[in-house]
Amino acid sequence: MVGSLKPELRSGEGFTEDPSPNPGGVPMNASAFKLAATGASSEAPPAIRPVTAAGERAQPRTPPPVTKVSVVTLRGSCLSPQTFLTMQFSRTHIGIAVGTGALLVLVFLGYLYWLSTQPPVLARSEERDPLTNMPLSITMNPFRDRTMERTANAFIAQMRDGNCRKVLAAWEKKKDYRKKRADFLCNSEAQHPLISWKLVDWEDQPPLIILHYKGERYTSPAQDATYRDLFSVTLENKDGTWEVTKYDAFY
After folding, report:
1. What is the model's pTM?
2. Cα three-residue angle 195-188-168, rounded to 5 degrees
3. pLDDT band at residue 250 using 50, 70 and 90 as cut-offs
4. Looking at the chain, which terminus has fewer C-beta neighbours within 10 angstroms, N or C?
């Protein structure tokens, strides 16, 4: 009976139909029909590949890739010994940095306090001018009282601007050497106008303070040449106010 069966293919379909009736009345393809004819078990049939109208077998579909999920293990709250040592190491460095900063601040504050207790001139150079015996350089205290310097600078500026008679008017009223001194100073200032000046030394002779300056002057009223020389301003504290009591210059 098996040999007399001839499967027929329908046009445009990829299945064959058994002309003989089957129990379920369901069409079977060629593989299923062959299994049924030979008596093999149909519980696990081979994979069926549909046939296209042109007779070519369709390519099997590639299944999508499977994403692998790795197992993530969360650590507990306990720190490892290495992490603990690293934290301790960082805290030690922070402590050292804070301590060093505090020490520097204390040293700086101590230095400021030391400066506030020092005289106006902190240091004088050992080398001195052979003619005037003045130090070639001095280091002034930045926290010194500058009241005397401001008073002296205002007086010198008046002398430079040609107001010598006005500034020394009180001296001219005196009937002693200061009147003659005032006349000499004003005439000399007119002949040798002052250009600029610089503080070169500070001398304390209580109750007087003598400020020594190096000035630049013109050699004549024609202002054709200049020269440098020393002059000094003497100040005295009268009732809490510093006043210029003497002016000496070399012309």
Report:
1. 0.59
2. 90
3. confident
4. N
